[in-house]
Amino acid sequence: MTDIIARNAGQLGAIVRRIRKSRGLTQERLGALMGARQATVSGIEDGATMTRLGTLMDALSALDLELVVRPRSKADMREIEDLF
Predict the structure, then answer these.
(1) Which of 26, 40, 75, 83 pairs as cysteine with 36 (C-beta 3.0–4.6 A)?
(2) Residue 70: inside a domain, yes or no?
(3) Domain count, the chain
(4) Total-model pTM
């Protein structure tokens, strides 16, 4: 899988949703894998800004993903927005 860039909560939520669906998981099943309710998964996917970092990390772990932090690239923001 290639790197996918997220620059805000909404974009990160869309990435989680896309990967969850590509793996054939429901929100309920992902919630069970991460020890959370379906509503929590829905909030992450909707880009809820009040989501705890630990909860987000649980979701990424359940999807076998990792978070990478690096300096922001100079890519045109429209190119990134087009991904979503």
Answers:
(1) 40
(2) no
(3) 1
(4) 0.83
